[in-house]
Amino acid sequence: MKKAKIAVGVVALGVVSLGSWAYESGAGESPVVESAAPSGTERHLANIRQLTHGGKNAEAYFSFDGDRLIFQSTKDPASQTLQDCYQMYVMDLNGKHTYRVSTGYGSTTCGYFFPGGRRVLFSSTHAADLKCPPKPERTAKYRWALDDYDIYSSRLDGREMQRMTMTPGYDAEATISPDGRSIVFTSVRDGDIDLYSMKTDGTGVKRLTTEVGYDGGAFFSPDSKRIVYRAQHPQTPEELQAYKDLLAKNLVEPGNLEIFIMNADGSDKRQITSNGASNFAPYFHFDGHRIIFSSNLSNPPDAKGRPSFQLHLVNEDGTGTEQITFIGHFNSFPMFSPDGKKLAWVSDRNTKARGEFNVFLADWVP
């Protein structure tokens, strides 16, 4: 795990939070990415289509029937105006019939459908402040703020909103098991950044991780029996002290993350990657034995120091890593459709403006 570190530079992994990871740093400062010729063939992706156009769009996740996507965006589809922070939207797979499901206040992140498709889950800061949270001071290393998010559920029209967490600080990165029984989420409620589970009515909260450091970005396996997640655990006294100093200021400095798997009850934790890179946004392949994730492990930074985050597929035992995407500097938030026939993800390929990220959909070729 203590291998040569791969620099992340000022390219961030957090859309609004580390729960959403996507080049949040330097909004408007990341250079326009030209559609460079790929260094490899995207042989698993066919019929690629772009569903959003303009602004920052991230974390597009399928409904359990595979007919819709929930995602966060800084571009309001009704007015076509750019907003200062993310709101939550639902759209059809053709990119049409897009509408907002969040309040329009504060900032939102990490949307997810409930089984049945009548309600959605997301995190929002609107209870703490109706304005967008302030961005952390820029430093040589990317710092992400643990803003005061709570988890909410609502109907698809935004009505009947229910607040599911009420503890101070960060509660976000929530996803739901396919069997509809459990929610896994990230919280600072016990003084560290850990994973928790709860029933879908918000009761029965259980802490799943206890290692010092960041644990988050969790998703269930297709059979709901296991959880895949990303983690960054300090390895030296110096790293531990730096982590605690930042956490005391509600900050975290993500850099080197590895992918882990555990049982849904928190037992049998196993580290899958050990490459010293920034590995995040893991999601189970529909066969339940492989994991797709985003990482800068395969491509060195370019002449300007910009890392290249691409999608990769790896076996659950850590073997057989295969690069999936090759175009653009940022590809992340992959999710397979429930039937395994499609892949949704976010990319800066074909961008026309600085800081633009869009939702893409492709047919998956085994």
TrEMBL record:
Keywords: Signal. Residues 1-22 form the signal peptide. The keyword GTP-binding does not apply. InterPro entries: 6-blade_b-propeller_TolB-like (IPR011042), WD40 (IPR011659). It comes from the Bacteria. The keyword Magnesium does not apply. Belongs to the TolB family. PANTHER family: PROTEIN TOLB, PROTEIN TOLB HOMOLOG. This is Uncharacterized protein.
